[in-house]
Amino acid sequence: MQIDYRHAFELAPVGLVLSRHRTIVDCNRHLCELFDATREQLVGQSFQMLYPSADEFERLGARIAPILNARGQYADDRIMKRADGETFWCHVTGRALNRDIPHEAGIWTFQDLGKRRPVRAELTGREREVAAQLMGGLTSKEIGRVLGISHRTVEIYRARLMRKYKSGTTADLVHKLMLG
């Protein structure tokens, strides 16, 4: 039996994207459903339209390029934005097709974590980045290295998150972030 790869791509249980220079070249139905958009609205567009802000799009692109260059792949949990502006937690995994030029071409998967982890508090872009790293179990120093900021700045953002989520400890904050 011969496999129809286009059909398999369309029916994959995760959102799939083929990209070139951070632009969507092709995507499957699941991705369209996930972002509440049509294929026509997505293909040919920059990934920037899927981010809560242009700043987050730029910062993340700069941060993952050396990781894609070194490892060829990247994964994280982040807040993304649907076509109607609703934000949601999403697990993103990607692979560079050319590690020497990591954004040249890639394949990416997107999985909605929103049912398990709804976005409830209004967060700034940097707060979202710090929250995502906290959920990954990183310390302030490790988060600072990943985000290219000082660990003291991370602690300021963590304190803001703790106030917004009415948490007394970092463990409580992470628990509330996980549950929404």
Secondary structure blueprint with pairings:
Layout: H1 5-11, E1 15-20, E2 23-27, H2 29-34, H3 39-42, H4 54-71, E3 73-81, E4 87-96, E5 106-112, H5 125-135, H6 140-147, H7 151-164, H8 170-179
Antiparallel strand pairs: 1-2, 1-5, 3-4, 4-5
Helix pairs in contact: 5-7, 6-7
Q: How many β strands by DSSP?
A: 5
For this structure, what is the CATH class of the largest domain? Alpha Beta
| Chain-averaged pLDDT | 89
**Strand percentage:** 15-25%
Based on secondary structure, the structural category is: alpha+beta
Strands across the major sheet, in which order? 2-1-5-4-3
SSE run:
HEEHHHEEEHHHH
Q: What general outline do the C-alpha atoms trace?
A: globular
Largest sheet: 5 strands, antiparallel
Helix percentage: 40-55%
Radius of gyration over alpha carbons? 17 Å
Q: How far is it from the N-terminal to the C-terminal residue, by CA?
A: 45 Å
Question: Number of DSSP helices?
Answer: 8
CATH topological fold name of the largest domain = Beta-Lactamase
